[in-house]
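Reopening this one. Same input as before:
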Amino acid sequence: MNRERRSNFRIPLNLPARYDGLSGAHDARIEDISLGGCFVNARGQVEEGETITVEIKLPSGTWLRLRGEVTAYQPGIGFGMVFSNMTPAEEHALQKLLVG
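Same output, byte for byte:
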C-alpha cells in the first residue's frame, strides 16, 4: 500500500533552480513546493538520504537557498526533498512564495 508521506500540501509551479550535492552543481527546475519540501526536476544523480542545497530563483529575481535531504530519486526525471534547518528568514521567504 502506498501511503502519502507529505504533511504539507504542495503547490505546482515552474521556477529555475540549481543544486549542489555529492555529484556536483547542476541546473534544475522546481516542479512543486510546500513548506516541508519540493520536487526538483533535474538530470543529475543524487542518492536517497543525501543532504543537498537547492537555490530557487524567486519571481523577484533573488535566489532562495534551502537545505534538505533527498527522500526519493527518479533517474533522468528528478528527486523529492524535505527541507531542514530553515532559518526564520528562509521560512518567511518560502511562505511568501507559497501565498503568491
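So the earlier flakiness isn't reproducible anymore. For the record, Residues 35 and 81 are 11 Å apart (CA to CA).
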